[in-house]
């Protein structure tokens, strides 16, 4: 059974950065305003995430790494909502099957922190013997430590790139979550080095964080665009079919016509989860390469909020490509609005 679970876990956790993405989402879900990431050997030796979130209650520790353990289902209706991107309580379980996982956590109410270690979904020492959580010193919040990722799945391990490549993927994930959560302070560093490779302050805003992470050249060219089913409708262009069913809204920060780069940078968050959509990426890229300035690629940050029910729950979360209801319609509406704004910019500069 452990072997099956190990294979399943490898399907969910592909590499250090995919483990990190899950752990970051958990910290953010826990209301953290500070998230510190420490990495050794590209995350293969060590991946540690320390947050100041709500912590985990001691009584929940024994089942924490069991599959389908989630505190995020409050009602039956929520179940459907949560299946959108979450792994329905599969992330920590999966990680425990392919690494040495330990947790130190303290809620505000607890007088001390608790330390728990897991193997194959249960509280256990690395040799497999059961071991109860132990009291220890610690601050409010949770520190998750993942060591020796894929030590027992050589195929996964051999599919990884070198540690510097894996580390840059980790930095990329932290950078994107930092942009999407400007109120949260993030750091990311290699274990043993004193200066972090990435730091953001808390209480910043999205534009400032983009400047910090991607540089002033991009930041000063950014244009803000808000799109919703009804936006632009005052232009009398009432096309009945062109309005998506449920309510949705998109916040876009994209570079203007004067910005030139070889490669597109695309940050897509749907309902606050970092996802990929080749369709959206292509559609947006086409605007720039074809209409605005030939051969140039943009920077686009796009935060889309849609009805969680409209996200395709049949697509397994490991397929990073996301699909949702009215995808084509929503994409078209966003692109049309962006084109309009860009063209307006373009002409105002020419004349
Ligand atoms: P899910 O996020 O889908 O619920 P996970 O396996 O990622 O599943 O996490 C399981 C549960 O562990 C969460 O529902 C949450 O209650 C708890 N948890 C995990 N990480 C943290 C954290 N950093 N702070 C507080 N609670 C956490
Ligand atoms: Mg999770």
TrEMBL record:
Signal peptide: none annotated. It is found in: Nucleus. Residues 210-343 form the DNA mismatch repair protein S5 domain. This is DNA mismatch repair protein S5 domain-containing protein. It comes from Phlebiopsis gigantea (strain 11061_1 CR5-6) (White-rot fungus). Belongs to the DNA mismatch repair MutL/HexB family.
């Amino acid at each position: 059974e452990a072997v099956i679970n190990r294979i399943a876990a490898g399907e969910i956790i592909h590499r250090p950065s995919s483990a990190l993405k899950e752990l970051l989402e958990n910290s953010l879900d826990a209301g953290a305003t500070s998230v510190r990431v420490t990495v050794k050997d590209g995350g293969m030796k060590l991946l540690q995430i320390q947050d100041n979130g709500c912590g985990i209650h001691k009584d929940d520790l024994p089942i924490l790494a069991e599959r389908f353990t989630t505190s995020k289902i409050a009602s039956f209706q929520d179940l459907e909502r949560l299946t959108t991107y979450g792994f329905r309580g599969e992330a920590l379980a999966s990680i425990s099957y392919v690494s040495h996982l330990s947790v130190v956590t303290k809620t505000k109410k607890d007088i001390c922190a608790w330390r728990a270690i897991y193997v194959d979904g249960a509280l256990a020492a690395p040799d497999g013997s059961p071991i109860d959580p132990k009291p220890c010193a610690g601050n409010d919040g949770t520190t998750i430590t993942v060591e020796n990722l894929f030590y027992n799945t050589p195929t996964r391990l051999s599919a990884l790139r070198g540690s510097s490549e894996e580390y840059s993927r980790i930095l990329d994930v932290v950078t994107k979550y930092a942009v999407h959560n400007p109120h949260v302070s993030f750091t990311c560093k290699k274990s043993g080095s004193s200066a972090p490779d990435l730091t953001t302050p808390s209480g910043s805003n999205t534009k400032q964080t983009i400047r910090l992470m991607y540089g002033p050249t991009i930041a000063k060219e950014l244009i803000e665009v808000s799109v919703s089913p009804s936006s632009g409708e005052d232009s009398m262009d009432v096309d009945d079919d062109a309005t998506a069913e449920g309510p949705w809204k998109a916040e876009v920060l994209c570079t203007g016509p004067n910005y030139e780069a070889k490669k597109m940078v695309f940050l897509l968050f749907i309902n606050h989860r970092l996802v990929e959509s080749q369709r959206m990426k292509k559609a947006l890229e086409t605007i720039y390469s074809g209409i605005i300035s030939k051969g140039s690629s943009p920077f686009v940050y796009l935060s889309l909020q849609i009805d969680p029910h409209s996200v395709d729950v049949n697509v397994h979360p490991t397929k990073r490509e996301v699909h949702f209801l009215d995808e084509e319609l929503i994409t078209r509406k966003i692109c049309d609005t962006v084109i309009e704004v860009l063209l307006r910019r373009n002409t105002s500069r020419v004349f």
